[in-house]
Amino acid sequence: MDGRDIGAALVGNLHFGVMADLFFRSALLPTGWAASVRITVGSDGAFADVEPDSEPASGSDEHGIAVPGMTNVHSHAFQRAMAGLTEVRGPEGDTFWTWRSRMYDFVARLTPEDVEAIATQLYADLLRHGFTSVVEFHYLRNPPGGGRYDDPTLMGQRLLSASRAAGIGMTLLPAVYRASGFGGALPEPAQERFVADVSEFLNDVAAFNRATKDDPDRCAGLALHSLRAVSPDDLDETLRAYRREVPEGPIHIHVAEQIREVEECLAWSGARPVEWLLANAPVDSTWCLIHATHMNSAEVEAFAGSGAVAGLCPTTEANLGDGLFELPSYLAAKGRLAVGTDSHVGLSPAGELRLLEYGQRLTLRARNLSAGSPGVSTGRRLIDLALEGGSQASGRPGGQIAVGCRADLVVLDDTLPCLTGRQGDEVLDAWIFSGDDTPVGDVMVGGRWVVRECRHVDQDGIADRYRQVMTALLQ
Ligand SMILES: [Zn+2]
Predict the structure, then answer these.
(1) Could you tell me the distance, in angstroms and rounded to a whole number, from the CA of residue 294 to the centre of ligand 1?
(2) Where, residue-wise, is CATH 3.20.20.140 in the chain?
(3) Could you tell me which CATH number the domain at 19-68+401-446 has?
(4) Cβ neighbours around 190 below 10 Å, total
């Protein structure tokens, strides 16, 4: 079965879920926790009615605990296929940069069909853990060795197909990638799969906007790979043209992930990466700065004040030896954040939020550092921040169980031991801080059930295709 067949089978399978009348023992609403909540989903896939203190409709199922679906704000889907394959020590010792060389070697062989199968499996796995939408930072654009596909947007179209087949919401961000170092250094041969002219990237943006125009669960935006890969002139030209076409669209950029990157930026410009970006680009609430790991206190204050979102990927940042984000001072300055799984060595929102908090506990030797104020649950604060920041950074308003929002929700199974006896915010703390078993039972995206009783609705078909692709790739 090819990707299109998987998608067609799934759409048929899911269609019965639209126009749902649901009842939950409790639900996290914009006003807080509510009990006995009846939720109606319209045929447009949005919440049509949300009524606390209700009775279930006759014949409707009673579910456990409903929470809004989470947005994964940073994904390179193809990297999922490398998870666990870069953990053997190399001859010179290993760093982010040696990992990147291995990633380039792996990328050299991937076809569009491979990427679609890998992404579909990944998105099904993200759904099972409670992510209902993903922001795909898409830079694997060209055929192996360079050149162009007949349709230069082919790779991105495959990612959109994968998201439809799995049933996950998507923001697709074609990533401008032009150089191998600060100031516009020529790309390396291994980067030929990523590079194109600015005009080609702008055509990609336009094509993906057209492809998602009538799809309420998907949209497109723009990524700038990094200040290493985009020179100041290219950045200006891209932003001016993009803003003419899409005044409010999302813009994402990798920034200040590695100390070497900070040193090279200082040598090139006299400024640190976040400092340079904030001084030279119109960073505002439509922007999401991925990683932003290495900041001084002035950068933390300026970034938080910009209204942009920090896109944090703690498991990947740990795996790559990046460092710890300046979380306490950033939160004190009212900075906004969201989480992503980036290289996908982790797959769950709970895992990312747990490591985000634990990294700070380990280094500061204190507890409940993200909670902010006495009496506040750490899990609740982190989930509130990630829901709000994720919605903002995705360019797709949502993150709430409220009338008019997309019907994206996660059902936590309160019959499981890890949630036994937990009430209100204790449920969220138990989800994040009680271990690796996920209490995610069912997941709905745009009014369609895509996960039922812990299984993706097309789990076997998606896994068969993935297994075929990986067996061929790794032989
Ligand atoms: Zn990334």
Answers:
(1) 15
(2) 70-394
(3) 2.30.40.10
(4) 15
Type of residue found at 302: A
Write the pLDDT tens digit of every residue in 19-74.
789 999 999 999 999 999 999 999 999 999 999 999 988 877 789 999 999 999 99
Short-list 411, 463, 417, CA closest to 437:
417
Judge whether 291 counts as a catalytic residue: yes
- pLDDT attached to residue 455: 98
Render 236-297 in DSSP notation, one character per residue.
HHHHHHHHHH-TT--EEEEES-SHHHHHHHHHHHSS-HHHHHHHHS---TTEEEEE-----H
Catalytic residue from among 342, 414, 425, 442: 342
Model confidence pLDDT, tens digit, residues 368-406 = 999 999 999 999 999 999 999 999 999 999 999 999 999
74 is catalytic: no
Residues 25, 27, 31: CA angle, nearest 5 degrees: 135
Distance 266 CA to ligand 1 centre (A): 22
pLDDT reading at 9 higher than 90: no
User: Of the residues 63, 74, 291, 344, which is catalytic?
Assistant: 291
Q: Which two tokens stand for residue 82?
A: 């490398």
CA of 139 to the centre of ligand 1 (A): 10
Taking the model in full, what pTM does it have?
A: 0.95
From-to residues of CATH 2.30.40.10 in the chain: 19-68+401-446
- For domain 70-394, give the CATH number: 3.20.20.140
Can you give the pLDDT at residue 172? 98
197/178 Cα distance (integer angstroms): 7
Which residues lie across from 62 on neighbouring strands? 23
pLDDT at res. 59: 77
